[in-house]
TrEMBL record:
Signal peptide: none annotated. The keyword Membrane applies. Keywords: Coiled coil, Membrane, Transmembrane, Transmembrane helix. It comes from Candidatus Nucleicultrix amoebiphila FS5. The chain crosses the membrane at residues 9-28. This is RND efflux pump membrane fusion protein barrel-sandwich domain-containing protein. InterPro entries: Beta-barrel_RND_2, MdtA-like_BSH, MdtA-like_HH, MFP. Pfam families: Beta-barrel_RND_2, BSH_RND, HH_MFP_RND.
Length: 346
C-alpha cells in the first residue's frame, strides 16, 4: 500500500506543478488577454458611378489592375456634351455683342435726352420772346398803332412757340421712356448672360465628368462597364479598393471589452499567413453593438426573451510595415488577441 502511495507522488507533483503553471499563466497572462476569431479585414473602398449618362467609348482598366490617383478609368462618348459647351459659348458671345450694342444705344440715348432738354430750354426762350411780342402788339393794335396783320403774325408766332414747347416736353418724355426700355433690355441681356455662364460651367463640368478617374491609389474590382453599352448616372461601373489602407474589425463579446481602450496593442494572425503574427493597435470601439446597426434591430420589448451575448465591433489598425500586407484583402479571416495591460499609445 505504501509502495502505491510512493509511486503516486511524482504524478501528484507533476499535477501540482501543472496547476501552478496554469494558475501563473492565468493570473499574469490569460486574464489580461482577450481574443476572438470573429474578425475580418476591411477597407473603405469606393463604388464608382458616372455623373453623366452616355455610351461608353473606352474602358482603360480591367479587374485586379493597380491604378494611381487621377488615372483615367472609363471614357464616355463626349460629343453631345462638347456640342453643348460650344453652343453655350456661342450664345455667350452673342449676348456679349448684344450687351455691347445696347450699351452704346443707351449712351446715345442719353445724349439724345441731353439734346431734348436743350431743345426745351430753347423752345422756352422762344416762347417767352413770342409772348412778349404778342402782348406788346396786342396793346398796340388796340390803339391802332400796329396793323392787324402784324398782330395776327405775332399771335400765330406765340401759338407756334407754345406748341413747340409742348412738343419738346413730349419728345423728352418719349426719349426718357426709350432709355428705360433700353436699360430694361440691358438688364435682361445681363441676366441671360449670367444664366448662360452658369449653364456653361455646368456643361463644362459634365464634359469633364465624361472621363471617370481613380479617386486614390488602389486596385480595380467588380468591373461591370463594357465598351459600347449605355450607362446611366449613378449606375455602379467598377470599384476601387485601397488595399494599402486595410484594417481589422474584431467583433468581441460584450463581456470582453470592459478593459479595452484605444491604443492598446493587438496581436493578429491571418489565415493567409498561418504562424506569422502581426502587430496592431486598437483604433476605436463602436458606439453600439453590431445588432443595433443591422437592417432590422432586435426588439425585445414584447414576447419571450432569450438573452444572447452581444458583440461590439472594435477597429484595429496595423502598426508595423510589411510588404506582405500587399496580399491582404478585405474580407480575410483574422484571429485577434488584445493585451489589455498594454498602455494606450498617446
Amino acid at each position: 500500500m505504501q509502495n502505491k502511495i510512493k509511486k503516486s507522488y511524482p504524478v501528484i507533483a507533476l499535477l501540482s506543478i501543472g496547476l501552478v503553471v496554469v494558475a501563473f499563466l492565468w493570473y499574469f497572462e490569460w486574464r489580461n488577454t482577450e481574443s476572438t476569431d470573429n474578425a475580418y479585414t476591411q477597407c473603405n473602398f469606393s463604388v464608382l458611378s458616372p455623373k453623366v449618362s452616355g455610351y461608353i467609348k473606352e474602358v482603360y482598366v480591367n479587374d485586379n489592375h493597380v491604378v494611381k490617383k487621377g488615372q483615367p478609368l472609363i471614357k464616355i462618348d463626349d460629343r453631345d456634351y462638347l456640342y453643348k459647351v460650344k453652343s453655350l459659348e456661342a450664345s455667350i458671345n452673342g449676348l456679349n455683342a448684344t450687351i455691347e450694342s445696347v450699351t452704346r444705344k443707351i449712351e446715345l440715348q442719353r445724349d439724345i435726352i441731353k439734346q431734348a432738354k436743350a431743345n426745351i430750354d430753347k423752345s422756352q426762350a422762344n416762347l417767352d420772346l413770342s409772348k412778349k411780342d404778342y402782348e406788346r402788339t396786342k396793346h398796340l393794335v388796340k390803339d391802332d398803332f400796329t396793323p392787324q396783320q402784324q398782330f395776327d403774325a405775332r399771335k400765330a408766332g406765340f401759338i407756334t412757340a407754345k406748341s413747340d414747347r409742348l412738343s419738346a416736353e413730349a419728345n423728352l418724355e418719349v426719349q426718357k421712356k426709350q432709355l428705360q426700355v433700353l436699360e430694361a433690355n440691358l438688364k435682361e441681356a445681363q441676366a441671360q448672360l449670367e444664366q448662360a455662364h452658369q449653364s456653361l460651367n455646368q456643361a463644362r463640368y459634365d464634359l469633364e465628368n465624361t472621363t471617370m478617374c481613380a479617386p486614390y491609389d488602389g486596385v480595380i474590382g467588380n468591373k461591370s462597364a463594357q465598351i459600347g453599352e449605355f450607362i446611366t448616372t449613378g449606375r455602379p461601373a467598377l470599384s476601387v479598393v485601397p488595399v494599402h489602407d486595410t484594417y481589422v474589425v474584431a467583433n468581441f463579446k460584450e463581456t470582453q471589452i470592459m478593459n479595452m481602450r484605444p491604443g492598446q496593442k493587438a496581436h493578429l494572425t491571418f489565415d493567409t499567413y498561418p504562424g506569422k503574427t502581426f502587430v496592431g493597435r486598437i483604433d476605436s470601439l463602436s458606439p453600439a453593438t453590431g445588432a443595433q446597426f443591422s437592417l432590422l434591430p432586435p426588439q425585445n420589448a414584447t414576447g419571450n426573451f432569450t438573452k444572447i451575448i452581444q458583440r461590439v465591433p472594435v477597429k484595429i489598425t496595423l502598426e508595423n510595415s510589411s510588404k506582405e500586407w500587399d496580399l491582404l484583402r478585405p474580407g480575410l479571416s483574422v484571429f485577434v488577441k488584445v493585451d489589455t495591460r498594454s498602455t494606450p499609445k498617446a
